[in-house]
Specification:
CATH class: Alpha Beta
Strand order of the largest sheet: 2-1-5-6
Distance between the termini: 36 Å
Structural class: alpha/beta
CATH topology: Uracil-DNA Glycosylase, subunit E
Largest sheet: 4 strands, parallel
Oligomer: single chain
Number of strands: 6
CATH superfamily: Uracil-DNA glycosylase-like domain
């Protein structure tokens, strides 16, 4: 499976958030975190004290307005459904074009799979570490919305 969703960023982006690989719903919608139970946009909206963006257009505008770039660590892989645990035969994205165009100040990874793959493949290539945040995926049910918001608050620093 090849990742076909282009990264969201512009020259004003300051934060880069990398997931692992788009879910089935995100691949169908052709945009990041499209599963209705994924808490990504609800967490960000709470942090910035805004309404939750519900459409792809509103989500893209929200990310750009808040200077947040979004993409994924994995460019292509074998995956069963949306399960990170099933991911095999990984090829990673080259994030250097984002770093060259935008003045990215901090890189965050959304979840353990993104963290592991970033640390193994991307950090050695670019020499920039990333801070891991708890996954906003519905599969990470152990984390309540309140705990996620508190953990993700670090992106505001």
């Amino acid at each position: 499976m090849i990742h076909t969703i282009p990264p969201v960023y512009d020259e004003n982006s300051r934060i880069l958030i990398l997931g692992s690989f788009p879910s089935v719903r995100s691949r169908e919608a052709e945009f990041f975190y499209a599963h209705p139970q994924n808490r990504f946009y609800r967490v960000l909206a709470a942090l910035f004290e805004e309404e939750v963006p519900e459409s792809t257009e509103l989500r893209r505008a929200f990310l750009i307005r808040r200077r947040i770039a979004v993409w994924d660590v994995i460019r292509s892989c074998e995956i069963v459904g949306s399960s990170d645990a099933s991911i095999r035969c990984i090829e990673v994205n080259d994030i250097r074009p984002i770093l060259e165009k935008a003045n990215i100040e901090r890189i965050f990874v959304n979840g353990k799979t993104a963290e592991k793959l970033y640390n193994r493949h991307i950090e050695p290539a670019i020499g920039i570490g990333a801070l891991a945040l708890p996954s906003t995926s519905p599969a990470n049910a152990a984390w309540s919305m309140e705990r996620l918001i508190e953990a993700w608050r670090i992106i505001l620093d």
